[in-house]
Amino acid sequence: MLAERFIDIIGADFFTGVPDSALKGLCDCLYERYGTEGGKHIIAANEGNCAALSAGYHLATGRVPVVYMQNSGEGNIINPSASLLNKEVYGIPVLFVIGWRGEPGVRDEPQHIFQGRVTLELLEVMNIPYAVINADTSEEELHGIMESFRQVFAEGKQAALAVRSGALEYSGKVSYRNNYTIRREEAIKHITAVSGDDPLIVTTGKAGRELYEIRCSLMQDHGRDFLTVGSMGHCSSVALGIAMNTKAKVWCIDGDGAAVMHMGAMSVIGAQSPDNLVHIVINNTAHESVGGLPTSAGHTDLAAVAAACGYKETYRVKTMDELDNVLGKARGGRVLTFIEVMTAIGARKDLGRPVTSSEENKLLFMEHLKKLGDRSLNG
Ligand SMILES: Cc1ncc(C[n+]2csc(CCOP(=O)(O)OP(=O)(O)O)c2C)c(N)n1
Predict the structure, then answer these.
(1) How far apart are CA 327 and CA 165, in angstroms?
(2) Ligand 1 atom showing the smallest separation from residue 260 Cα
């Protein structure tokens, strides 16, 4: 179905969400129609944030808002659904549009498999009626589904549409860009060169895929890196947990979408202030891996946030020379450091995906950390 028709039939006038590649057609169409300013469409920090925003919209208008998300966002939205939207609390009607990654029987990345299997079950446990949207769901069928949800919304409850990958297409073409010039892959090459044998923790998104390929091209083993393939927004906390338990310097490569999703982690890192952690955010101002819609980080000085959270050294760089300079300082120093790297949007067309399983990655990484520990004990 065309995303344009999907939006028309749903008939809402407020949309908030976190982008998803399975919903790319819908995301592109909303972006073209409403942009991200003006109050009709808001790309939020995380899916719980969307639930709260939509509650505010309903309180102010009495109308039914739409929250769109990848199914990995179900976890983030469960608390505000159970304790804010739910009929037994405030009874706020919301339509959830959920991109169904990892659907049983459809090949997908490891982080999507379990989530894909429990996507509908979670809705059932939450008492949220749903319908599945396929590529061949007709407009009449969608009208019928929305008609059946009318009563659900009237009772102050939520309903959901689980959208199969590729079910919604957009006939327009959207291109995303910013004015920064640093290429992310180039920045990651320089970070790997400077970090040497130190453990490197990477976020979900394209950075991990690029790092994996850089290690292959340098014929280096993958044990140095922990590729946090799922749990968007949490890699800096994984890095903190490691840094507090090793003498080695720990380098974390985060994304702007991920950093914004759980920005509270920066306050916790600042409060702990481990002197062996370097937190780098690759800020391309976009959710690039899932289509390229903007994040709010294009309007936020993340280095200033880090300074306010208690990071001791903070930098914001826009050129490779500036990056090399601060990487050198971070290498030589022994102090909690934050580096925001303003980068262009875009990656190589032939960028692959890691072939090491997540379990293998964990074991190799733990072995590597142990070796570093033994070395520092011996040395
Ligand atoms: C909780 C959750 N919501 C949504 C997603 C879908 N998702 C995967 S990557 C991504 C964008 C990440 O953006 P950023 O951290 O800036 O990295 P980039 O994609 O630009 O490399 C999103 C939204 C997810 N994985 N988890």
Answers:
(1) 40
(2) 15
* Nearest protein CA to atom 6 of ligand 1, as residue: 20
140 and 269 share one domain? no
pLDDT above 90 for 373: no
Nearest residue (by CA) to ligand 1, atom 9, is 205
CA dist 34 and 4 (Å) reads: 12
Q: For residue 174, is it within any domain?
A: no
Q: What is the pLDDT of residues 206-259, one digit of tens each?
A: 999 999 999 999 999 899 999 999 999 999 999 999 999 999 999 999 999 999
Strand 200-202 with 250-255, pairing = parallel
CATH number at residue 145: 3.40.50.970
Alpha carbons within 13 angstroms on the beta-carbon side of residue 170 total: 19
Residue 179 domain flag:
no
Which residue in this structure is represented by tokens 């959710």? 287
| Residue 191 Cα to ligand 1 middle (Å) | 21
Give the pocket of ligand 1 (CB within 6 Å): 18-20, 70, 72-73, 76, 203-207, 232, 255-258, 284, 286-290, 295
Residue ID of nearest Cα to ligand 1 atom 1: 73
Of 18, 26, 115, 229, best ligand 1 pocket probe by most atoms within 8 Å of the beta carbon: 18
Tell me the mean pLDDT in the region 292-296: 96
pLDDT of residue 195: 96
- The whole domain housing 283 covers 184-378
Element (H, E) at 125: helix 110-125
Q: Which of 40-44, 96-100, 215-219, 336-340 has the lowest mean pLDDT?
A: 215-219
Q: How many whole angstroms from 261 Cα to the centroid of ligand 1?
A: 9
pLDDT of 44-74, one tens digit each? 999 999 999 999 999 999 999 999 999 999 9
Whether 189 and 256 share a structural domain: yes
Read off the DSSP letter of residue 84.
Answer: I
